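Entry 14. Ran structure prediction on the chain below.
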Amino acid sequence: MLERTIHGVALGCCLLCCAARGEDKQGQSPTWAIFVMNIDGSQPRRVVFIEAFPRLAAPRWSHDGTRLAFEAHGTGPGRALLVDTTGRNLIDLGGGAKPDWSPDDKQLLAEVPGVGRSGVWVQNANGKGNSWLASGTAPRWSPDGSQIALGAPLRIYDVVSGELQEVFIKEDYLDKVLGWSWSPDGKRLAVVVKRGEYQLVLVDTQRYTSTPRLRARLDGAPAWSPDGKQLAVTIHGSRPGARRIHILAVDRNDPSTPIPGQMGDNCDPAWSPDGEQIAFASTRAQ
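Output, structure tokens:
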């Protein structure tokens, strides 16, 4: 996205070596990696760890299930990266955060703050070509590609007309909007908000009405299951640095259930296209 601050093969080689080696340094702050686990919490595996970027976050599956886009942060500006789900073929897309795939996996959106023309940019998945779309943060493409949800405030951008529609009205009295995600049919947004307390609300994107679903100490964006029946959400534990990913039925009143076997701090869930796995960011060792 925009002009890259570090160029060429040398960076790619460095990232690939770190991704394959995955070594943590002793005595330092927790480092973050991108993991994948089965829905029942079994068989967690680290996909990528990058020594030069100790904070990895916000993984997003490609629709064919073969790649993950994610963001990486070190001492400089954040960067958007791609990697195969096997941990191979790490690609640096340049400066950016919260990358998201187009429905055909040919393009990526990303938030590019404070560099040139900040806001939401789109570029080809091969890293070539980029163009500015709108001012905003954390862009999320609708399933049919015709709209983009972005903040803040939370708005829906029409790809054809370029028009923006605010999702919440002033009478909703929101303190903060933390994250959002489209339902697979594109008819709803699951949104984590703070309105005195933290809530997960479901927004009808045709009528712009919202229905509360869960009250808890939520964090970040929720993730829909491919069948639209469940959500994966991040909930803070009883002590700092102990967030857990929970599974929640969308249209029932059942309480959320934490995925078993989680260690460290876990957040940013993303459901795989086949519905069998969840990608997430974590400080767990392995």
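Confidence is low (pLDDT under 50) at residues 1-27. Will compare against last week's run tomorrow.
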